Amino acid sequence: MTVPADDGRAPQRGAPVTTTADRLPHALDAAEVSERLAGRRPAVFLDYDGVLTPIVPRPEDAIMTDAMRDVLHALAGRCPVCIVSGRDRAVVAELSGVDDLVIAGSHGFDIHDPQRGVIEHEASRGWEDLVAEVTERVRTAAAEIEGTQVEPKHASVAVHDRHVADADRPRVQELVDAVLAEHPGQLRVTPGKFVHEIQPKIDWNKGKAVEHLIGVLDLDHPDVVPIYLGDDITDEDAFRALARRGDHREPGLGILVIDPADAPSRETAATAVLATVDEVARFLDGLAR
Ligand SMILES: O=P(O)(O)OC[C@H]1O[C@H](O[C@H]2O[C@H](CO)[C@@H](O)[C@H](O)[C@H]2O)[C@H](O)[C@@H](O)[C@@H]1O
């Protein structure tokens, strides 16, 4: 059950509280954040695009800065740090230049820990042939639409339309609809920024991946506060998962990375907001001290 934050009732413990981005406190000076962290250890889960790197016109140009990498490594010296991205895991590793942290790629389907190797979970397999077939189908059809960019991934295929002429955008939607219709009940489209991401229709997402990691990494302790930073709609699964933990233990913290002036009415289950990637770096730097 979702209880709106501002309906006059006290939220039920464990129910994800939703609000809008313009009502969130700023994470750099929010009492909610400092009070929750007081005397506890953070465990930090980070989205990649829009959080560790700014959104840029071409996916391959989202290269993490040396400064952000230094912040991550300093933080990783103090507490667990995991990257949880919609991107292919290998691409995250390449663009971030990070090979010593846990990375959950492909919206959490593909998780790897440098210490433990690949981390299996309930949605680890069974969809490979479907994804391969759909990737080929999308690649062929998208080649007919100028400006599309197809991004194959471990457990999905993304077709970007940021550089498609407005008049041609409906063709991309038609392509996506056609592919879904060819595989009734087997696929879903994950929302993103100028991207249609076609995934197996399996009950797995970034929130489930974070919950799984909390268990595998032995972080399920009263003195550990899981914190998730994300900017996209898919990150709301992780915000909700951390908020729900309050059913039987202290909830985690969700931090939405968005300029509230750009999206004041964005519904979110996050606890606080950061407006820019620079503010993310300052926040993480503060946690590392
Ligand atoms: O979960 P994330 O790590 O945030 O990844 C979400 C998607 O990010 C990438 O696409 C988005 O960022 C690109 C670079 O800034 C931008 O050019 C594109 O328009 C955005 O949609 C990535 O390419 C996708 O695979 C991820 O799912």
UniProtKB/TrEMBL annotation:
It comes from the Bacteria. It catalyses: alpha,alpha-trehalose 6-phosphate + H2O = alpha,alpha-trehalose + phosphate. Keywords: Hydrolase, Magnesium, Metal-binding. Its cofactor is Mg(2+). Residues 1-22 are annotated as: Disordered. It holds the Pfam family Trehalose_PPase. Residues 1-10 have a biased composition (Basic and acidic residues). Its EC number is 3.1.3.12. Pathway: Glycan biosynthesis; trehalose biosynthesis. It is an enzyme of class 3 (hydrolase). InterPro entries: HAD-like_sf, HAD-SF_hydro_IIB, HAD_sf, OTSB-like, Trehalose_PPase. Removes the phosphate from trehalose 6-phosphate to produce free trehalose. Belongs to the trehalose phosphatase family. This is Trehalose 6-phosphate phosphatase. It comes from Actinomycetospora straminea.
